[in-house]
Amino acid sequence: MQRIITILFLLLVTHKTTAAVVLQYHHVSSSTPRITSITVEEFHQHMAYLHEQKFNVIPIETLTRQLASGEPIADKTIVITFDDAYIDILDNAMPILNKYQFPATIFIATGLVGSSKQYLSWTQLRTLQAQRITMVNHTVSHTHLLRQNDNETENGWRERIAGEINNAQLVLSTNLGDIEKIFAYPYGEYNAAVVGIIRELGYTAFGQQSGAIGTTSDPALLPRFPLSGVYTDFSSFKTKIMTLPLPTKNDFVEPLLTTENRRPPLQIELKGSDLSLTAMTCYGPGGRTETKHLGPQDVIVTAVQDLPIGRSRYNCTLRDESGRYFWYSQSWIRKKSDGTWYPEP
């Protein structure tokens, strides 16, 4: 009887207690581009707060195994990640992580390892591996996965993308031992075909769309909160690490837009929840989106201006009675008007 009561209790409160937030950093430095950087002082402030407030900071592989098994995730669970294996992780982030004994993860593009003084070497990565740092896959060359090369067939593109992932995994395993099949999309870019390749290869994958993770989150498209540049604000950080996953129907939404579709409508429908979306607010390029309510748990949101060329997002939040926010984010990718790809800044 006690077991039945416990299960029923978990089912009633699972949308509030089953939540993990994954933090995404790149550089920890004042001398690197601000758009991909957080200062040492800001990073220390983030980590000190997690420690003071007794957040449950766990390795990424613990989270992915919990998601795979359906095991409930403890509330206030945090995973710390870094993309691209920059040297300042060792120089600037590690003393702070070691101070609080926090585990962390580095998503590694294997072709960049030791390629310049900017990147960690294999020897340095092995040193970090012995200090609670998990090493996982970020392709070989940090390529734009959606882009086909000139005269490249669809099959050729698929083989090249699978090779980027499989070869990176092989190099990681050769240099660092057994590596979990965990992946992060370079630039946070994905579409249905890329996600399909990830599913076929059996990876748990993370994007750069923001939000919290729950047991119903798509394991091939898990959110992270980027924390660089304008997103390092401490007040916003405190809000983000307390967010909850919005229990949507979890249907895949294609982020790659056609040239004609510049203000994509996004339908958000809840599943297995007693929440109402009547007070949800969403923002995109141009500010607060237009919202059409189809019912208390079903809305369509649309940007008030054309999405810019490149990457953008809709971010939606719903305040809980506790003061915390349910958070949902959708990424968009728009090519140039002539259908060609935009250059990176």
Explain what this protein looks like in three dimensions.
The protein is α/β, with parallel strands linked by helices. The protein folds into two domains: 2-243, TIM Barrel; 266-334. The protein contains eight helices and 18 strands. The strands form five sheets. Strands 1, 4, 5, 6, 7 and 10 form a six-stranded parallel sheet that branches. Strand 5, helix 4 and strand 6 form a beta-alpha-beta unit. The chain starts with a helix and ends in an 11-residue tail after the last strand. The model is unreliable at 1-15 (pLDDT under 50).
Question: What's the SSE blueprint?
Answer:
Elements: H1 2-17, E1 20-25, E2 27-28, E3 37-38, H2 40-52, E4 56-57, H3 60-69, E5 77-83, H4 87-100, E6 104-108, H5 122-129, E7 133-137, H6 154-176, E8 182-184, H7 192-201, E9 204-206, E10 225-226, H8 234-240, E11 244-245, E12 266-269, E13 281-284, E14 287-288, E15 290-295, E16 298-302, E17 310-319, E18 325-334
Parallel strand pairs: 1-5, 1-10, 2-3, 4-5, 5-6, 6-7, 8-9, 11-18
Antiparallel strand pairs: 12-16, 13-14, 13-17, 15-16, 17-18
Helix pairs in contact: 2-4, 6-7
